[in-house]
Amino acid sequence: MNFASDNIVGASAPVMQALVQANAGAMPAYGNDELTAGIKRRFAEIFDHEVAVFLVTTGTAANALALSSAVPPWGLCICHEEAHVIDDECGAPEFFMHGAKLKGLPGVGGKLAPAAVSSYLDSLPKAVKQMPPKALSISQVTECGIVYSPAEIAALGAVCRERGLFFHMDGARFANALVSLGCTPAEMTWKQGIDILSFGATKNGCLMAEAIVVFNRDLAEAMDYRAKRAGQIISKGRLIAAQLQGYFDDDHWLANARHANLMARRLAEGLTQLPGVRLAWPTEANEVFPVVPKRVHKALQEAGARYLTWTEISLPQGEQISADEELIRLVLSFATTENEIASFLDLARAGSARQAAE
Ligand SMILES: Cc1ncc(COP(=O)(O)O)c(C=O)c1O
């Protein structure tokens, strides 16, 4: 059982089929093909909005390029202190922003609260020595597995509008959030003020396909040049578009996300029935963050289960992990089977029973 992340599995079958189909024959290179044009139109339909779309191969590239279009070299981009953009991308956003900085703020469950953002903005000196804030970036799903509601996004969007900040969403797990909320892509993005989105598809079934979706045309102006300089104008671009075609056809992306989220709920329900197990944050998408007795963690590890331990920095106030406990992260994917969930729960139960017997 490997629940380390949702990118430990390959691509899903419809995506691979679409890829194989697009493989035959010759088409213009560098994304100047019909398949790519069709996918761009598809994004506009899905989001019910005119959009500029740039296909890239990694989420880091999508985030770094998106933020570089929103923040000048002297600017500041606010994000959560645990955000992927600040913590897990080796400084790529700052590199591509050419000197601009990310500022991480605290918040329960990886979420930024509008009041916290506003009071941080109020605290900044209005002097030339201070880098001016230019953008706000949120992760949907957050790094703690929870989901911003459209109203929460709207409240942050209002702060952005008031303060003249561009609003970016890192949607590495966009589909998982979307099906969890049961809203439309428009309701989760531009209707709440999102200017630019990193649309993730790799984790939810693609081989390597992500998109920068730009709602605010001003941010699209130089994106082709930025992407080229980042090595993200893909020569056989049609094979990126093909993955997204397989992903979107028959709402395959939504079915994949629903499955992953369901597996997460099942796992969370099973684990929380064990003595001494509780959830650090509610399971709202495809990630489960249980606090487990150390002995159970040890038994799981010894049996070969794979997952990550997690940081406690975004726990709710007053919530503490004792020395006998471990906070872990389990990520479920479109490919997770009921059997894997059952086997993991069996192991956890056995570990828990052994602990009780000692
Ligand atoms: C929140 C978030 N953003 C972005 C990414 C994309 O990163 P990568 O460059 O590995 O595709 C990830 C992947 O782990 C992620 O969890």
Automatic annotation (TrEMBL):
Main function: Catalyzes the cleavage of L-allo-threonine and L-threonine to glycine and acetaldehyde.
Record keywords: Lyase, Pyridoxal phosphate
SUPFAM superfamilies xref list: PLP-dependent transferases
Single GO molecular function: L-allo-threonine aldolase activity
Pfam families: Beta_elim_lyase
Keyword Lyase: yes
Subunit note: Homotetramer.
InterPro entries recorded: ArAA_b-elim_lyase/Thr_aldolase, Low_specificity_L-TA_bact, PyrdxlP-dep_Trfase, PyrdxlP-dep_Trfase_major, PyrdxlP-dep_Trfase_small
UniProt cofactor(s): pyridoxal 5'-phosphate
E.C. number(s) listed in UniProt: 4.1.2.48
Lineage: Bacteria, Pseudomonadati, Pseudomonadota, Alphaproteobacteria, Hyphomicrobiales
Entry protein name: L-threonine aldolase
Any one of the GO BP annotations: L-threonine catabolic process
UniProt organism field: Microvirga brassicacearum
Keyword Iron on entry: no
UniProt domain Aromatic amino acid beta-eliminating lyase/threonine aldolase: residue ranges: 3-289
Domain of life of the native organism: Bacteria
Catalyzed reactions: L-threonine = acetaldehyde + glycine; L-allo-threonine = acetaldehyde + glycine
Family the entry assigns: Belongs to the threonine aldolase family.
